[in-house]
Amino acid sequence: MALLVAGLLATGSASAGAPAPAHPALLIKAADVPTLKQSLGQYPLLDKSYRALQKTADKALASPIAVPVPKDPAGGYTHEQHTRNYYALQAAGICFQMTKDGKYARFVRDMLLEYSKLIPGLKNHPEAKSSSPGRLFHQALNDANWLVYSAQGYDAVYETLTPAEHKQIEDGAFRPLCNYFTQDLKSWFDLVHNHGVWAAAGVGMVGYAIHDQKLINLAVHGSAGNDKSGFLAQLNGLFSPDGYYTEGPYYSRYALSPFFMFAQAIDNNQPELHIFEYRGSILKKALNSSLQLTNTDGRYYPLNDALKEKDWTTQELIGAISIAAQHYGVDKTLLGLAQQQGKVLVAPGGLAVAKAVQEASKNLQPYQRQSVLYTDGPTGTEGGLAVLRAGAQDAQTSLIFKYTGHGLSHGHYDKLGIVLYDRGREVLQDYGAVRFLNVEAKEGGRYLPETKTWASQTVAHNTLVVDEASDFGGKEEVAEKNAGQAWFADIRNANAQVVSAKANSAYPGVQLQRTVALVLDSLSGKPLVLDVFRVQAGAPHQYDLPWYYQGQLISTSFKYDSFATSRQTVGLKNGYQHLWREAISQPVRTPGVATLTWLNGPQFYSLSTATDTATHLVLARIGATDPNFNLRPEPALLVREKAQNKVFVSVLESHGEFNPTSEVATGSRSNVARVAVLFDSPEATVVEVQLRHGGTYRLAVANQDAAPTKAHEAIVAGQSLRWQGPYQLRHIGH
Amino acid sequence: MALLVAGLLATGSASAGAPAPAHPALLIKAADVPTLKQSLGQYPLLDKSYRALQKTADKALASPIAVPVPKDPAGGYTHEQHTRNYYALQAAGICFQMTKDGKYARFVRDMLLEYSKLIPGLKNHPEAKSSSPGRLFHQALNDANWLVYSAQGYDAVYETLTPAEHKQIEDGAFRPLCNYFTQDLKSWFDLVHNHGVWAAAGVGMVGYAIHDQKLINLAVHGSAGNDKSGFLAQLNGLFSPDGYYTEGPYYSRYALSPFFMFAQAIDNNQPELHIFEYRGSILKKALNSSLQLTNTDGRYYPLNDALKEKDWTTQELIGAISIAAQHYGVDKTLLGLAQQQGKVLVAPGGLAVAKAVQEASKNLQPYQRQSVLYTDGPTGTEGGLAVLRAGAQDAQTSLIFKYTGHGLSHGHYDKLGIVLYDRGREVLQDYGAVRFLNVEAKEGGRYLPETKTWASQTVAHNTLVVDEASDFGGKEEVAEKNAGQAWFADIRNANAQVVSAKANSAYPGVQLQRTVALVLDSLSGKPLVLDVFRVQAGAPHQYDLPWYYQGQLISTSFKYDSFATSRQTVGLKNGYQHLWREAISQPVRTPGVATLTWLNGPQFYSLSTATDTATHLVLARIGATDPNFNLRPEPALLVREKAQNKVFVSVLESHGEFNPTSEVATGSRSNVARVAVLFDSPEATVVEVQLRHGGTYRLAVANQDAAPTKAHEAIVAGQSLRWQGPYQLRHIGH
User: Fold this and answer.
1) Under the GO molecular function aspect, what terms does this record hold (chains A, B) (predicted)?
2) pTM score, whole prediction
3) A620: distance to nearest CA of chain B, Å?
4) Which domains, from first to last, does chain A contain?
5) Strands of B592-600's sheet, edge to edge?
6) Rounded CA gap, A257 and A250, in Å?
7) What is the tens place of the pLDDT at every residue in A4-59?
8) Interface predicted TM-score (ipTM)
9) Contact B441/A554, CB-based, under 8 Å?
10) Annotated active-site positions of B, please?
11) Would an 8 Å CB–CB cutoff place B573 in contact with chain A?
12) Closest-CA residue in chain A for B341?
């Protein structure tokens, strides 16, 4: 063993002109190791994290090395084995640094030597279906994951290897994949997109590990070396100035991992780049915004392509939180999360977090989710995302309002869509994506076709659909060029928050403006959401406003004809083919209000919408045209009207209580008596919601001039109503 | 205050010849009070329970007394107010005993005086819809609840009242309802049924409180005084000798409450009856069997009419557990439950439990759910219920096999049905009942029509349906006369438990025998369920064997035609009208195996069934003919075959793992290679299940003679297979 460890700097590869600091130098530096070793036994979270790595490494060491010829898709044997391998390489590397036990170094060496024999002969993976096929895995993305982790293993044992071993591993295992990425898949490698971040991190971390400045430059500055692509371009292009990740919360989680890991590697090797301070410490803002875009139970809001199971305990965030602690200081409100994750990075940042958790003991400060307004786009001019929140912790209500840019290839056609959570539960859902992650039997765990045909379509969201088509014609290249537009927002008053946004290019010749208010009703103490969706067009259209309520229908205030014994789809394309038509209502003779009440867990909810003599209501259920049973059979209410100009005004309320243990069920009926548009002109719109108990809410919205000083007037019931600024929300006596 | 309390025995009513012990004498005796008072401050659970009663009482005292004219159904104001009132009366009574603060006594007096004015003028409740209408509530059952709790309040403050007040309250509030029950609703009062238990408890507890031996006798010995009805008849008739409650687990919970409370009142007043030792301490057995019929998460198995939300923390069990502790000693394995319930009865038994919880501190013994075989019927000859269990605590698998009697008015036509739970989750569900408890907007919280048209029908269960009809023609009076028949059972080997039962009168001319085995597979360590459903008839029939799997369909081994854009019901009546036909498969040319795989939480499950050239498979979904949206849209697989004699052989397996946090999804494919009937004769049936990995299971079952000494022979592939006894289960090499 001593033989292997001795005099190692001398064996450093001279393959490129890069500076050669002592190894390891990716997530930890050689100089970090003594402190980490001394800290063991002091901080349970660090101990547990290290034990987990030991377990991973020892389990791998106890089995014969298996580097199979790639064959299976995700969920299948070869896929899972190569995944296990790269985690084992990383773990064994850390174990070697912490113990200097040569068995770990030999394991890394032997496995990488196997890879060096396998990889040069590989062609595209037999299960590859995308335009960026992998070699070890069905997609290049997973090969990039492999590089990121395997590079760490190599880096950790670097100094134990002979020059011949260096050459064999670098030329056989690492360079072929790096060359494949940067040459054959050059346009993919240059993507400003989560794949591109992983690719850059993989190539760059290999670059540092094997001392190849050319690879490092490609990774940091892009293949043209001009920062139009590569890591800096990704830091510039994927986040808004306030840290919103353009692909949405689910992918922010996934991208933060390579962003933070590669940044750490850069900082360890080229501290002069000040990467953690880059763009106003954009990585800090990115982490904060990612965490804010989780629900009270830690689950990521499933905007764009997203799996709802994913929460903030996910592996990818652990490293980001540890690394952020090293560079930005420990965020005390994240210690509870660190404890819940049960892991930190075995690295200086992870040590800091583990120490802080130990010191805080049981008095951990809770993480605070608050109302936030994010912009989207590199300069913050491509619309944005509002999260209105009321109430504290588990009892919090969150209204998410999306008027961002499209969000790249995983974006949905959901402009001006809203989603509502209450006390941890989805009340108005975003469907997320149609995918069973890594489940081999569901098309190898890939995104299923219904992600495109259903989940990404406009009708799958709680937003307006014009003429049964998706916004931007369902065309990504068009959608990418047209973001939503923030109109005004006021989140200063926790009991009455209002946001308004526009989308004037989603449908040709149609102007959309949506204004939402989250109000805590002073009488019931429960949340009310007011929603004013104004549409103006040059010609008549059919408008559908769907509401994907989650729960069991309890009652409706309106009559309907039910298709109880024979059922057809609501439409034929653009997602409508996936909706069963369960019931329809005919328009009523006098304008009024239609209310649908449902039960979700212990809570009743009602949606009430103003109706007129042209309003049809469609009760629908997801799941049609789904021969492979990929969809969940969840319900929706579509409010449908043929009109040229129209203001849809709706209110969503939480009411009553259902407690089967104590057998209490109270307040199962809506408290809304009337919902109406009082005034509508090009300049302004005024709506009101009358409650049975608790007075009336009246919301006035400016449509043309949102300046704070602008005076507005509307005529309501013959009276002049005046206000100044973009909106006025009044609660009138009860 | 002293004035009110002083010299009270002298004021005892002499209205009847009953012995007059000091009050209180229902759930607690006067002599218990000093010890209870001294114990406050020592045992947190007792303190918390008492504080909760104080809170209930003080909240009621702080509001004006409201005794409204009955008007609303469950969930409505008057219903909920009268319910709140009786709990307040009980709570205030206990608070008075514990504090001797006259405000509590005055509250009870004043409220009961209000009731004494209201009740005499009441006719049937305006929302009454059943044959046993209530006066204060829509059904007499709730009036009985009112008597049980109000009697306790009255009893507790009895000695503070003047003779005139006694007379007013007894004649105005209590006697009218008791007379109404025992005279107008005599046949209902005499029911051997949970309603009857509540009615007897109400009338009997009032009898003790007001010293009316006549009421006591009616309650204990029935209206004819001959023990054909009344409390003793209920103790005799509703439980099997081993304590199984004939209406099923959900109603056992509900009936145990009056059973234990009234028994306590009897014991406090007539200890010479030795009611807790009655029928071999049947109440102890009843409580044990009720608790055993909960799932690992404490939820009651939803057999017969049942709401799935109900678990063992339910209010009704708290009193039963406390009272049982007083008479049978503290069961240490129930202390964790007591802590979870967070309450005990403020009574000697509750004190004992609270003390034991305090002493056990954090080292609470877990409750053990084990394999159990219950008989049904007063003499244990009306079939029974088997629960086969494997694994420990949260990871336990439970297979419930029901071959009981019908179970009275809430019984389902589910003879030989099975239900499967695994690791806390429903894998093969029983639908339960269609009801939204106390939700006013859902028909006043009553059982909805779909309980009869869907949930109670045979096709709604995991058991065989002959000719699309329910067993016993769906007629309660026929079903009540015909129980299932236990055939044999062997639960000695925890890794391989086998139970067989028959039903030869469910369908005229059709003999049914079902044999189920719960096996822990030695290779995977996961459960396998083998199921052999043998049907013999005098003529051809259509047989459907439905499987209500819970979760998301992942894959099928068979091809099917999907009704993806237009959908009809599976049938027209007997529950079939509530099933959508989603897809059908045509018979295959060569016998084989059909497998359906689904995902439920983190676990994959597969059902594999042997198919032949006549087997059709129907993929169905609940929810058709449901214009009011009362049903849950859950899936089923129906295995359908037209035949005269047929052996359905199926295997249900748990396999793989789905973990979205760690992004691991492995083993998503079934491990079953072949399922086949090897031999079938009037004497015996032999089936086998071949696994891809892990060998073959072969199960041989005796059909005609289940004697342990009987030798059997079958010819399998030309070889003679011999065994002795009712079955042989072999696991053949792997």
Assistant:
1) lyase activity
2) 0.93
3) 11
4) 39-211 (1.50.10.100), 238-369 (1.50.10.100), 372-732 (2.70.98.70)
5) B485-490, B496-507, B510-520, B527-537, B646-655, B603-611, B592-600, B552-556
6) 12
7) 333 333 333 434 444 456 899 999 999 999 999 999 999 999 999 999 999 999 99
8) 0.91
9) yes
10) 251, 410
11) no
12) A661
